[in-house]
Automatic annotation (TrEMBL):
It comes from the Bacteria. It holds the Pfam family Ldh_2. Signal peptide: none annotated. It comes from Anaerotruncus colihominis. This is Ureidoglycolate dehydrogenase.
Length: 353
């Protein structure tokens, strides 16, 4: 059976499920938007599939969906917020809104968040800035799940990074990546499916590449992308998040897995940087420059056998356009997760097919 649902209906279901658990309606809508829009991009590993686990974490005492953001420091172009163990999507949505507001006046703004939880896909928040006509950069540290060149075991997080900038032919030019060769959730899913994986994804308990995910995450670790390059960029993310906020870093031993240790606070930190092009070369000129750059890339000479060159984010925006016009066909694992939640909370999912 196919599981097809309209984007707005998926948002409504997620909102209702969170409200059922007692979350304030505004925060429920923010969280639902972040998760459902991520599915619309085609990034199903970080979308609504995770909502059931978030709610289980709340029920187990590892996260507080009623938490209110606390302002620790605040200035014209910066702020540090304490999520107080609240849901990562809610804290991050508000933090990016604040960074955008400050950047309108100051030109550049950085807002960091500490004591938070898994925030889904970094690209969603970067695109909030792009929708406002600005350049957005979003990073988060995570629990240690990645090794370093020459080491074995989980030493640091595969700390995600995303950027987005406004364009014309697509809503934005954007990239959302983790510093490992793949996201760790893809390895977890391969284990559930009983599939082998490329030997560039993880190392085994001895620090050697392996195609067998059956012992991850109990043993082994993710491999950093491009060896020392992904390793070094992961450190940068920790410098911008946990270290800058005087909070936990992925190497401090104070961050635990959000999905495997449900009864414990995740304790991650995020950072949201926004640059307002109006204060530099001008907002319209910036969009025009971005569009010229994208056009040059698409028109570049193609390799033998290649039919198309994609700009960063173009594939995701094609997924998004189809999701809006036709509805989203959710993978079986995503549909199964939200159906299980639907049965628990008594909120019906309005499938189209």
């Amino acid at each position: 059976m196919e599981h097809i649902i309209a984007l707005e209906d998926l948002k409504a279901f997620c909102t209702a499920a969170l409200e059922h658990e007692g979350m304030e309606s505004g925060d429920a809508r923010r969280c639902a938007e972040a998760l459902a829009e991520t599915d619309a991009y085609g990034t199903h590993s970080h979308g609504t599939k995770n909502l059931h686990n978030y709610i289980k974490k709340f029920r187990a005492g590892g996260m507080d969906i009623h938490a209110a953001l606390k302002v620790l420091t605040d200035g014209p172009a910066y702020a540090l917020l304490d999520a107080q163990n609240g849901m990562g999507e809610c804290a991050s949505y508000r933090a990016m809104e604040l960074a955008i507001e400050k950047a309108r006046k100051s030109g550049v703004a950085l807002v960091t968040v500490c004591r938070s939880n898994h925030f889904g896909a970094a690209g969603f928040y970067a695109n909030m800035a792009a929708k406002a006509g600005m350049l957005g950069l979003c990073v988060s540290n995570v629990d240690p799940n990645m090794t370093a060149p020459g080491a074995k075991g989980m030493l640091l997080g595969n700390n995600p990074l995303a950027y987005a900038a406004p364009a014309k032919s697509t809503p934005s030019i954007f990239l959302d990546i983790a510093m490992s060769n793949v996201a760790s959730l893809k390895v977890v899913q391969a284990r559930k499916d009983g599939r082998q994986i490329p030997d560039s994804w993880i190392v085994d308990k001895d620090g050697l590449p392996t195609t067998d995910p059956s012992h991850y995450p109990e043993e082994g670790a993710m491999q950093p992308m491009a060896a020392h390059k992904g390793y070094g960029l992961s450190i940068l993310v920790d410098l911008l998040t946990g270290a800058l906020a005087n909070a936990a870093t992925s190497m401090s031993g104070e961050i635990v897995s959000w999905c495997f240790e449900l009864d414990k606070p995740n304790n991650v930190s995020h950072a949201f940087l926004v640059v307002n092009p109006e204060m530099f070369g001008g907002a319209q000129a910036y969009v025009q420059q971005n569009e010229q750059m994208a056009a040059a890339l698409r028109k570049a000479p193609k390799a033998q056998g290649s039919t198309r060159i994609y700009t960063p984010g173009e594939i995701e925006w094609e997924h998004y356009a189809r999701a809006v016009s036709e509805g989203m066909k959710l993978p079986d694992d995503v549909a199964g997760s939200i159906e299980a939640l639907s049965e628990e909370v008594g909120v019906k999912i309005p499938w189209k097919a």
